[in-house]
Amino acid sequence: MAIKYCASMMCAGYACLENEVRALETGGIDSFHIDIMDGRFVPNYAMSLNDMSYIASATKKPLDVHLMVEHPVHTIDLFLRRLRPGDTIYIHPEAEYHPSTTLKKIIDAGMIPGIAINPGTSVETVMEMLVIVKRVLVMAVNPGNAGQMFLPYVGKKVKRLVDMKEEMGFSVYWDGACGLDKIMKYAPMGVDGFVLGTTVLFGKGKPYGEILKSLPR
Questions:
Q1: pLDDT per residue as tens digits for the range 149-195
Q2: What is the DSSP pairing of strand 45-46 with strand 31-38?
Q3: Is 35 considered catalytic here?
């Protein structure tokens, strides 16, 4: 299966978001990664419902919505009615009392259910959810800010999840500090997709298409 690349839109240029979306789409990006932060679950605010809604209206490419918010069960319907069947929504199990309830809402709406796992969260604590999700987003940095350093111990967690993915029916995606070195190392191991931010895609002074064509597929 081809490697999937997701553009981390919190890193995009907001002077003209329309141009950013078009350039990324033309350049060959596979999906648009939308980071929603509430300033409570993570120490930052990022991207709004309006940002997400605009990007959904501006492209036919899938959206990957990463909810870094406390108790998403209370607000998940705001996102579901603005997205399209086939878009992905990730929640953090650490942020929810009963994450399976929120995941069921995502499934019932025709979306792809996913969980995002913080660096300090063990595979054992999410084992039951791996049966029902279709994507697992492994955080290689603590969530909340772009440009952080890779946490090396996450690599062992990635390997464990890759070894389990076929039996349990989910895909593994990488988020945070994603440079070419990480793609070259972990894609052959079985990671299905990578979220691209400031390490490799944004702020490089090159057309997005040129960068994307240089990455392994």
A1: 667 788 899 999 999 999 999 999 999 889 999 999 999 999 999 99
A2: antiparallel
A3: yes
